[in-house]
From TrEMBL:
It is found in: Cell membrane. SUPFAM superfamilies: CorA soluble domain-like (SSF143865), Magnesium transport protein CorA, transmembrane region (SSF144083). It is a multi-pass membrane protein. Belongs to the CorA metal ion transporter (MIT) (TC 1.A.35) family. Signal peptide: none annotated. Mediates influx of magnesium ions. Alternates between open and closed states. Activated by low cytoplasmic Mg(2+) levels. Inactive when cytoplasmic Mg(2+) levels are high. Keywords: Cell membrane, Ion transport, Magnesium, Membrane, Transmembrane, Transmembrane helix, Transport. It comes from Streptomyces liangshanensis. Pfam families: CorA (PF01544). This is Magnesium and cobalt transport protein CorA. It catalyses: Mg(2+)(in) = Mg(2+)(out).
Amino acid sequence: MIRNLRRTVRRAYRRTVDLSHPARSPLGSAVVNCVVYLDGERQIDHCAAEEALRRVRKAGTGFVWIGLHEPDREEFAGVAELFDLHRLAVEDAVTAHHRPKADLYGETLFAVFKTVSYVEHEELTATSEVVDTGELMVFAGADFVITVRHGRHGSLGPLRENLEASPEQLAKGPAAVLHAIADHMVDDYLGVTDAIQDDIDAVETGVFSGQASRGEAGRIYQLKRELLELKRAVAPLDRPLRKLATEPSRLLDPEIQKYFRDVSDHLARVTEQIAAFDGLLDSVLQAHLAQVTVAQNEDMRKITAWAAIIAVPTMVCGVYGMNFEHMPELRWTYGYPLVVGVIAAVCFGVHRTFRRNGWL
């Protein structure tokens, strides 16, 4: 019941309107939104990047936040030139498929995060997809934030709304946005690990229910593969977060760095959970293989017991089937019933002995 409740809550959350979907963008196929913020308040949106940056620099305060979804080189070239982004960071933002990191290029901080989503399924199978990953790149400068999203999930629409509801936090500038994004990513990791725990509980219950099938090993291996994908997305983020939390930077206010330390602590919790899940799945797999071995041994004992029972009439019939001329009881009237009776009695005795010893 608790598992079904968690699943319902996750589905309800996923039905939230995706404000960062490219189809909703009034600015083109890649630019999702372009908003100017002054003193934490939203000023103008749906404007050209050049106009937004001009207004911010004319005011001498605030910043512009541009969101993009899977831009190609041509679409991103204008933005990169306008904000003087380093070509190596631009290349990473366009091609994607990079490890989480945080690098400083001149006056611009470039960070890469892995977005993670739990794939709902009614029942875990040996081919079920459990974890879906994407990427989110963030360029943070003195007066701008540029987010580049790759993948089907990782929407920043709800995050933007939450920040706009707290103008005092948003007024702290691009560093506050960078922290909110990092915190949002780690919160998603926590949600995914909670969901995976339901799958692990289901596999564990199936293995120890006494009715485990030979296909349980496939389910466990699939879950371990999906857990490995989650680990690849989460574990490399530890070093960038520690870097953001401890290394002095002109782009990060010391007050904001305290928040990054809190995010780093949450990430450590996720990493520990993943390691614990992996160890638990190893134990469950070993237990399942031990059960399979025990079942095979029981099958072999039954086969051996029946083979021993069948060996009795086989031996007797083999002796009397040698067709020698002079053999006892061959011409005796009660020879055949006696042999059959002896065979039945011996087989019954052997069967009872095996039953008493638990072989049958």
